[in-house]
Amino acid sequence: MQMPEPDQAAIAARPRLLEGLRRIVPADSVIADDASLGAFESDGLTAYRQRPLATVLPETVDQVAAILKLCQDLGIKVVPRGAGTSLSGGALPLADGLLLGMAKFNRVLDIDLENRCAVVQPGVTNLGVTQAVQDLGYYYAPDPSSQIACTIGGNVAENSGGVHCLKYGLTTNNILGVELVLMTGEVLRLGGRHLDAGGLDLMGLVCGSEGLLGVITEVTVRILPKPQSQAALLLAFDAVEAAGACVARVIGAGIVPAGMEMMDRPAIHAAEDFVHAGYPRDAEALLIVELDGPEEEVAESIAEVEAIARTCGATSARVSGSEEERLAFWAGRKAAFPAVGRISPDYYCMDGTIPRARLSEVLTRMNEMSARYGLRVANVFHAGDGNLHPLILYDANAPGELERAEAFGAEILTLCVEVGGVLTGEHGVGVEKRDLMGTMFDAGDLAHQERMKCAFDPDHRLNPGKMFPELHRCAELGRMHIHRGQMPFPDIPRF
Question: Across-strand partners of 422?
């Protein structure tokens, strides 16, 4: 993985940058010494590290606007950062760029029950939104495993999901409006407290844009009433193929669980050792299926799912008998990533999405790859919507293991596209999948995406080096090719 060659002119402008930043924010909000910058040199994709030119921590929209305009004037690149939990390297700093930390934007601004929404700043944690409204009988549906730490701004940037995204959707389905600041310092508002905005779906474009278009400074999120009843079913199987078949059968029966998660034996053992959730250690695969809604509907659906599981070869089935037991089922799944970190010096977390019907095939082929690369893999993922999160275990101190892990991960993602899926479900492209974009998009597709980047950020100052394998200058993208003196489509009127 290569990042863009540092711009020496930008590095030379560092003294002027620091001077300008200290005129905009208090001096202690500008971090410039090398030791302190070490805290910002990586995000959740810890295989790659790079210290930024400087880090700034604004706390008002006016400060963000002034910082971006200063960087635009000085020719300095900017990498926005929330909590730094990105697993795709989306917040990886640049040696010639400013890291713009949004941690101080951490307030819930308004709770509007009549419109079933809350207005929050981007530094509010995902779980913090639910905690702000739960005593009122509401919650925020998207729940990434990192929800205790990840922030709403980062969730919007990556279009994060979570275990309940099967029924309630990803971030894009649960936000109503955003405020963002462009590289020029201009402040835009998209959407609001209403269901749909007229005109182009610019908010849909911003959600999942990975910090390439603007810096988010406010988000209006949709909040939902707590379900009347919730129950979880813990299903064990003696083969991952059987568990995969069960997933397809449940969805095919027209049942839409609130969540449907799968773990294989390595993940089961790691999670059980870590949180003691009561998972069966003899299982090769485990499904956690949660149903919610009216009590009678939940009871009927639980019985139907259990019956389907038995026909697919489930070796055991446990229904949560209390709220504490339901939460215990989920505790292991939520802690799976840190749990796997206890059994390997390093791991590489992938994020590809496939058609549910190909789940068994893909898991089998991943096991074959594991043997070929000589690296263990633990699988824990959102089975209901086919969003895979294989964790490739390696030791960064062992020569060649990181490179093998990268190659293994690239082959998994290529397989996802090959079977009709996509490169990412919720982690984003970042630097991790950047060089694989050509497996999913052709040159024309990528050029159209780059044109959209140019419309918001024509000088490519915001988060460059992410998403696009090769970022072209905006003038190059708009250039018309003349072949032998003939323009393409000469019959089209031109103005």
Answer: 353
Q: Is the dihedral of CA 95, 96, 97, 98 positive or negative?
A: positive
Residue 379 CB contacts under 8 Å (≥ 6 apart), including other chains: 240, 262, 263, 264, 266, 267, 363, 366, 388, 389, 390, 391
Per-residue CA distances from 342 to 190, 338, 396 (Å): 43, 7, 15
Question: What CA–CA distance (Å, rounded) separates 331 from 261?
Answer: 12
Instruction: Give 100-141 pLDDT, tens digit per residue.
Output: 999 999 999 999 999 999 999 999 999 999 999 999 999 999
Q: Which two tokens stand for residue 319?
A: 């229904």
| Residue partners of 337: CB distance under 8 A and separation at least 6 | 145, 146, 349, 380, 391
As separate numbers, helices (DSSP H) first and strands (DSSP E) second, the chain gives 17, 20
User: For the domain with range 111-225, which CATH number is right: 3.30.420.10, 3.40.50.300, 3.30.465.10, 3.10.450.50?
Assistant: 3.30.465.10
Output phi, psi for 384, to 5 deg: -60, -35
Which H or E run includes 119?
strand 117-120
Q: Is residue 10 within 8 Å of residue 19, measured between CB atoms?
A: no
Nearest one of 383, 373, 459, 369 to 418, comparing CA atoms: 369
Over residues 273-303, the pLDDT tens digits come to 999 999 999 999 999 999 999 999 999 999 9
Domain ranges of the chain: 8-101, 111-225, 229-338, 344-436, 441-477
Pick the CATH number of 8-101 from 3.40.50.720, 3.40.1710.10, 3.30.43.10, 3.40.190.10: 3.30.43.10
Give the per-residue pLDDT at 480: 46
Distance CA 339, CA 193 (A): 39
Alpha helix segments (H runs only) across 312-390: 323-334, 336-340, 359-373
Instruction: Assign a CATH topology to domain 229-338.
Output: Alpha-Beta Plaits (3.30.70)
The sign one gets for the Cα dihedral 398, 399, 401, 402 is positive
pLDDT for 474 beyond 90: no
Smallest CA-to-CA distance from 162 within 387, 484, 372, 373 is with 387
pLDDT in tens, 405-420: 999 999 999 999 999 9
Of 113, 109, 50, nearest in space to 81 by CA: 50
Q: How far apart are CA 333 and CA 262, in angstroms?
A: 9
Counting Cβ atoms within 10 Å, is residue 184 exposed (0-12), middle (13-18) or buried (19+)? middle
Beta carbons within 10 angstroms of residue 221's beta carbon: 26
Q: What are phi and psi of 334, to 5 degrees?
A: -65, -30
pTM of the complete model? 0.91
